[in-house]
Write a structure and sequence with these properties.
The complex is a heterodimer of chains A (91) and B (263).
Chain A lengths: L11 H18 L3 H18 E3 L5 E8 L6 E8 L2 E4 L5
Chain B lengths: L2 E6 L7 H14 L4 E5 L7 H5 L9 H6 L4 H4 L1 E2 L6 E4 L12 H12 L4 E5 L6 H8 L3 E6 L3 H16 L5 E8 L1 H6 L5 H8 L2 E7 L2 H9 L9 H13 L15 H11 L1
Classes of the chains: A alpha+beta (91), B alpha/beta (263).
Chain lengths: 91, 263
């Protein structure tokens, strides 16, 4: 990446790639955006019982991961939840 | 050992029929005995792309229903004595044939042909199920577009669910000038996303339109698309063939330009 690429608009093939990757994740998982949204809210509820989390920075998505044993790459639910503090730890 | 290969894509208009015609003709040129089956009942097209539309007497549904013998329905291509076409029926629909009947038909054809190619209809319904029923392997045709790749991904999933594990990808209608400017996904992009083996990449070529106009597949001739299809045929046979440099045209001026570019 060159210095000026920061200011560059993404070209259309990169846009296509990004859109496709997201699209195929939900297609392959057979999991609609509504279900993902519900799941996200449930996860927030559970985690919030124990930790303070940054809702803005929270991200969950289905990706591919290499499984240890059997059949190479499998779908995985990947949650990135920034913790801002522990509840009741007194700090 | 004969092989039954289904050519499929999910999305329509990406080049299944053109690919079937060219790969079938190419394999025949390489000395193999080839039968082409048009499984797109109700919308038959392989016959016109092959230039054999005037010679149809019986069709796929006639064979399945027992109105004629298989040999009566097979049209011999006079240009290649080892190449035959079983046309589809135009006035019937996909439910006229069952997957079991297709299996039986392909089994029968295995006795007299090296390769049996099935041109699959667009979609994932009955026609698709019929086409894949008797197949040993699949060629998935896609173009470097979001919609075609999405459908190809779905097809790959369905093939795997149907225990058809041998499948290879053909990326069709590539425009290297657009890829270079970043306005079209590259071969590598498409292969990365779909994560299956690439068996060939075919450039967008005016020659395809001309050859379809004339009813004569261009495989093997002096166009980039013709060479790309011939290479696919060789790879199907198991040969290792390096991928074409699609950026260079085959014309003299292009070669000259490349010489300077490389130099």
């Amino acid at each position: 990446m060159g210095l000026f690429d920061f200011f560059r608009k993404k070209n259309s093939s990169e846009v296509a790639m990004d859109r496709l990757k997201l699209l195929l994740v939900s297609d392959r998982a057979n999991c609609s955006p509504e279900i993902m949204e519900k799941m996200k809210n449930d996860i927030i509820q559970v985690i919030s019982k124990y930790m303070e989390i940054d809702l803005e920075g929270l991200e969950i998505q289905i990706t591919q991961t290499e499984s240890d044993g059997n059949n190479g790459s499998v779908p995985a639910l990947c949650a990135n939840i920034p913790i801002t503090g522990m509840k009741g730890s007194g700090r | 050992m004969s092989e039954v290969i289904v050519i499929t894509s999910g999305k329509g208009g990406v080049g299944k029929t053109t690919s079937t015609a060219n790969i079938g003709t190419g394999l025949a040129k390489l000395g193999k005995k080839v039968a082409l089956i048009d499984t797109d009942i109700g919308l038959r097209n392989l016959d016109v792309v092959m230039g054999l539309e005037n010679r149809i007497v019986y069709n796929l549904v006639d064979v399945v229903e027992g109105n004629c013998r298989l040999n009566q329905a097979l049209i011999k291509d006079k240009r290649y004595p080892e190449l035959c076409l079983l046309p589809s029926a135009q006035t019937r629909d996909k439910t006229s044939v069952t997957p079991e009947q297709m299996k039986k038909l392909t089994t029968e054809l295995r006795e007299s042909f090296d390769y049996i190619l099935l041109d699959c209809p667009a979609g994932i319904e009955q026609g698709f199920k019929n086409a894949i029923a008797g197949a040993d392997r699949a060629l998935i045709v896609t173009t470097p577009e979001v919609s075609a790749i999405r459908d190809a991904d779905r097809i790959i999933g369905l093939l795997e669910a149907n225990e058809l594990k041998r499948h290879d990808l053909i990326v069709n209608r590539l425009r290297m000038d657009m890829v270079k400017r970043g306005d079209m996904m590259s071969i590598d992009n498409v292969v990365d996303i779909l994560a299956i083996n690439l068996i060939g990449a075919v450039p967008d070529d005016e020659g395809i339109v001309v050859s379809t106009n004339q009813g004569e597949p261009l495989v093997g001739n002096n166009t980039l698309a013709g060479q790309a299809y011939l290479n696919i045929c060789k790879r199907i046979k198991g040969e290792e063939v390096p991928f074409l440099d699609l950026e260079s045209g085959t014309g003299f001026m292009n070669k000259l330009k490349n010489l300077f570019r490389r130099g």
